[in-house]
């Protein structure tokens, strides 16, 4: 990239170290706008990635983790333009829980684009939910 504008990797403190697993929590790229690509955030809390047993708490915790990553790039949920949701054993009840939490999270007049993928399992035992995102800031 020209002008020394290399991708910027940020792995915020308070989240587990992703290096041994072959990914980063987020990367932003300076263009006329800054684009931030955020790895899937689960409901794991803290550096030891402690998971709650219930879906709703995992969604809430994943959104808190996503917010932590966004803040490390001086961004908010309003900067997100694309999300991908991964839900273990997806059903209508889980979709309603997600929709309720999304309405609390995105308070602007628009919502990001979204893809929901139902899966049989995620990376770690007990993970029920994961969300990744792309955010843009002018």
Automatic annotation (TrEMBL):
Report the superkingdom from the record: Bacteria
Which Gene3D superfamilies did the record assign?
A: RutC-like (3.30.1330.40)
Q: Which CDD domains match?
A: YjgF_YER057c_UK114_family (cd00448)
Mind telling me which GO cellular component terms the entry cites? cytosol
Question: SUPFAM superfamilies from the xrefs?
Answer: YjgF-like
> Could you cite one Gene Ontology molecular function of this protein?
deaminase activity
Show the PANTHER family listed in the entry.
2-IMINOBUTANOATE/2-IMINOPROPANOATE DEAMINASE RIDA, PROTEIN HMF1-RELATED
Q: Which family does it belong to?
A: Belongs to the RutC family.
Q: What is this protein called?
A: Enamine deaminase RidA (YjgF/YER057c/UK114 family)
Record the organism: Chryseobacterium aquifrigidense
